[in-house]
């Protein structure tokens, strides 16, 4: 995954240019800004800073992290409110203790294997403590718009074949959970779970136990 996204860094934001998704993206941006307003945000897997740039003006402060320096280089080149946003290399599964009131991750959950999701949520709670807001956004699978699913493994994880910048093809995990699957997974780790779906995206908010 690290190598895949390092290669994709410069062209990554083309995923946000599909015409049919623009109305959903505008709605998602509004909802994210509303829910993160006034918070001290820890962003995990910030990538190129696409979402950081959009909600940062409304947040109290932002620590945007990613495990890929190529992505962070692009994110850091963007415009943010002075003194409000900091960046750091961090592994989503090995987060240091952090002072945040809300955690945000865009399009990360779908890349976490089903059998590793509980450990990820546990790490978040240990890093920031209980009663912290968690906000996740990710893709719905939409026939004709989404990359076709190539296979499903024994754990129920689904995979897509992606074309790299160098012309090679790589298999990437990409899960598309239902609302019931999300509630079942988050139930033991969080409370006040709320899920909103548009045609192309879903957004989950909850409070970590």
UniProtKB/TrEMBL annotation:
Source taxonomy: Bacteria, Pseudomonadati, Pseudomonadota, Betaproteobacteria, Burkholderiales
Gene3D superfamilies in alphabetical order: Vaccinia Virus protein VP39
One Pfam match, by short name?
Methyltransf_25
Methyltransferase domain residues: 41-124
Q: Which InterPro entries match?
A: Methyltransf_25, SAM-dependent_MTases_sf
Name-wise, this protein is Methyltransferase domain-containing protein
What CDD domains does its record include?
AdoMet_MTases
